Amino acid sequence: MANEYIASLSNRIFLKSESDFPGLASMADAQLAPVTSFALTSNRKQLFRRDKTGFRSESPVLGPQRELLEFNLESYGTGWSGSTSKPAIAPLLESGMGNAMAIGATLKVSAASSVNVTLQADANLTIGMGLAFGAEIRFVASIAGPRDFTLNAPFSVQLAPASDLQVCANLAPGDAVRPLSILDTWAPAQAVQRLVSGAVTDQMRIRVNNDFLEVETRGYATSLYDNVSGVGGVNFQFPDPPPAAQSAISAPIAGHLGQVWIGSPASRFCTLTQAEVRIENNIEPRTDEFGCYETKGFVLGRRKVSLDLTLFERNDLISQVLYSSATLNQPLSVMLQMGTQPGSLFAIYLPAVLFPVPAFNDSQPRLLWQFRNALALGAANDEVFLAMR
């Protein structure tokens, strides 16, 4: 029927990595992402005439003006099915990390003892590589050879000879700008459809221990197209949504189920109540250059990775080590795993974190420690690693 309102639930958002699938006209490679909120702001530098006309009316200058597009996108965190295709939220994570997601091969164990592992064959191992066994993910902490390495924490079930360490979808920090396209579709077809291209993530937040694992990204974009205004020129054809095969909704991961390991050797904490990992890229948009009225590109600044933790104190050695390291300004490793089922696992590994002295919160019956803005250390793109399975 005509003259109907557009329902807020009649919305689907597709994501596509422009680095992996270049080309604006086609969104056939995009995947439906579990987005919960998408906001786009157009900051236009509108110019006004100030010559003497004898009247009080504002006289804006018409035509193209310099414009900076900013977006805020919130999504559920998901696992990975183990197929050859990347997860639907991979373009978001890649843009925030500045690197491509790597999918490795399954490794066959020859021998293992606690965190020490020997493989049956040589493998292309890297520090921070995520490996899955059963319903758990661990990371490569150090490498002694093409077959020998140590894990950041032991699996709850000891690896046996001939065990398979399953492939993970891994992400490490990088130095590249990795833009993505965001297709914002609405029903019915007469509604305004939008396409954001050249979107890059300036800030990414991963919130742990909510009802669901949540990923929030904020950043900038170069261009905004739609199906009604004619922006893009007479030869531009607004892309169709991807086929139905790529419209399967990824299942979100429960944020309150998982594990946290802290220290070296790592110890498992069972008292975590809140955690948030933040990645800030400090991107500078190129918007003020002569002769351009849209953002021409982006410059990556110094990366900052920080962590918030809230946990209950216990009268045990693990809590004492954590407090002592914070007081002495000594780094500790941190690993967070969300999910308890293969295909719905998401893990974060920070090899060296400087914790501040915690704030004591005694407003509840049990004493809480609150760590805010703990700084993740890094030397060469090794502050934080992500893995999905």
List its salient traits.
2 helices, globular, Thrombin, subunit H, mainly beta, 41% strand, 19-stranded antiparallel sheet, 2 domains, six-stranded antiparallel sheet
Topology:
Blueprint: E1 11-17, E2 31-32, E3 35-44, E4 67-76, H1 90-97, E5 102-103, E6 107-113, E7 116-119, E8 130-133, E9 136-143, E10 148-151, E11 164-165, E12 169-171, E13 180-186, E14 194-208, E15 214-221, E16 223-226, E17 258-262, E18 267-269, E19 272-280, E20 284-285, E21 298-299, E22 304-312, H2 317-328, E23 332-338, E24 346-354, E25 359-361, E26 368-376, E27 385-388
Antiparallel strand pairs: 1-2, 1-13, 3-4, 4-15, 5-12, 6-7, 6-11, 7-10, 8-9, 9-10, 12-27, 13-14, 14-15, 14-16, 14-19, 17-18, 17-23, 19-22, 20-21, 22-26, 23-24, 24-26, 24-27, 25-26
Structure in words:
By secondary structure, this protein is mainly beta. Helix content is 5%, strand content 41%. The chain has helices spanning 90-97, 317-328; strands at 11-17, 31-32, 35-44, 67-76, 102-103, 107-113, 116-119, 130-133, 136-143, 148-151, 164-165, 169-171, 180-186, 194-208, 214-221, 223-226, 258-262, 267-269, 272-280, 284-285, 298-299, 304-312, 332-338, 346-354, 359-361, 368-376, 385-388. It has a 19-stranded antiparallel sheet that branches. The chain has a six-stranded antiparallel sheet with strand order 8-9-10-7-6-11, with no helix packed on it. Strands 20-21 form a two-stranded antiparallel sheet. The two termini are 44 Å apart. 37% of the residues are buried.
